[in-house]
Structure formats: C-alpha cells, structure tokens
Amino acid sequence: MTQAETVACLLREIRACRLCAEALPLGPRPVVQASATARILVAAQAPGTRVHATGLPFNDPSGDRLRRWMGVDRATFYDARLVNIVPMGFCYPGRAGRGGDRPPRPECARTWHDRLFAALAPPRLTLVIGQYAHAYHLGAERGATLTDTVRTWRRFWPHRVPMPHPSPRNTYWLQKNPWFEAELVPRLRDRVAEALDAARADLADGGIQADGAHRARRKEKQT
Length: 223
Ligand code: SF4
Hints:
α1 packs antiparallel against α5. By secondary structure, the protein is of the alpha/beta class. The chain has a single domain (3-65, 72-222), classed as Uracil-DNA glycosylase-like domain (Uracil-DNA Glycosylase, subunit E). It is built from ten helices and four strands; from the N terminus they run αβαααβαβααβααα. The radius of gyration is 17 Å and the shape is globular. It has a four-stranded parallel β-sheet with strand order 2-1-3-4. The protein binds iron/sulfur cluster. Iron/sulfur cluster binds next to α5.
C-alpha cells in the first residue's frame, strides 16, 4: 500500500468514527484535512459549531484570523496537498458551562493521532495552536502557561510555532500581548511562504521527496 493509500484509508476510518458519540451534543462529524504530501501542519483544538455545520476546518472567524496570520488565501489553506489540518479533537465537543467550548475529547488523540502522524510526512512547519495542541506536540518542552510557551517561541523555531487560538474570544489576549502580532506573525508569514515553496517543489518532483521523508522517518524509528 502506498503512503497516499494508507492516509486515505485512515481518513475513511476516522470519518466513520463514533467512539464518543454519546458525549457529543451534535453527534460525531470528524473534521480533518490531511494528505501524504503536505508538509505544513496546522495542529489545532477542535471544531466549533460553524465548522461542524460545514465540515470545513477553520471555516469561521478564527480561520479568517489564522489565514491572515499565515498570509495565505483560502485556496492555499484548503489545498490538502500542501496543508494538513489536524485538531486534537475531530468532532465538536459542545459548550462549556462558563462559555467557550469544552476541551477536545480525549478519546480522539488516544485513538487516532499517533497512527495518523505516523502515516503523514514529517512536517517542515507545525503551527501548534492552543493549550491542548501545546500539550501533545510540545510535551514537557512547553512553559507553565500558554502565554509562557508562546512568549518563548524562539526556542521552537523554525520547525514548530506555538500560538494562541485565533478565536475572537482571544482578542483580549492579543491586546495584552501585542508582541505576538508585531514580532511573531511577520516571521511566521515568511516561514509559511518558505514551507509552501518547498512543498510545491516536492509536488513538482512527483512527491518523491515526501516518500523519501517517510522512509527516512521509519528508518530513524527502527534504529
Ligand atoms: S471526537 Fe474523535 S473519538 Fe470522538 S467520535 Fe469524533 S473522531 Fe471519534
């Protein structure tokens, strides 16, 4: 089975998942965008209601802000050959009592994430968005708080970029931390453009480099 077939097979399994259906107020609707060739990973939190309704990740004001931060248009963002979008929870988890959404369902990462990331090409650039993605993708390297982790973004540069969630609910955080949009965002845009150029070159090369990267990572794991 080719890498592309492995990813397609896994995505079919994920989209049929009903593992925590009873805990999901709107029922299961896994939203994920992934391909074997994409080398930019948007590692996010979980869909909101509008994303649940449309089945399209970041198809909401959070997505508008995220695309502005990345300096990409919708066509690029939704090109699965270039960008993988893998939230920590694939389905809308429901509203929290005090406003905002509940955390991503833990069953999701336990069941799917290690398998999915093993099948994808290693990302050149990972946008690590929000505290749940920080915990999974940065682990013990993250700071005591989300702000600490994001403020020390240079520690993870240039391959991982810890970020706050782009939700309108975080506008106050952005106002309190103007260095994020003044310093980090312009650097992020440049990195995204570089990674996209490299990804397009891979595609023009017939995906050979992506397959090579899979082989290299498997070999690394074996040694
Ligand atoms: S949240 Fe994850 S584990 Fe739960 S039903 Fe959706 S895909 Fe399955």
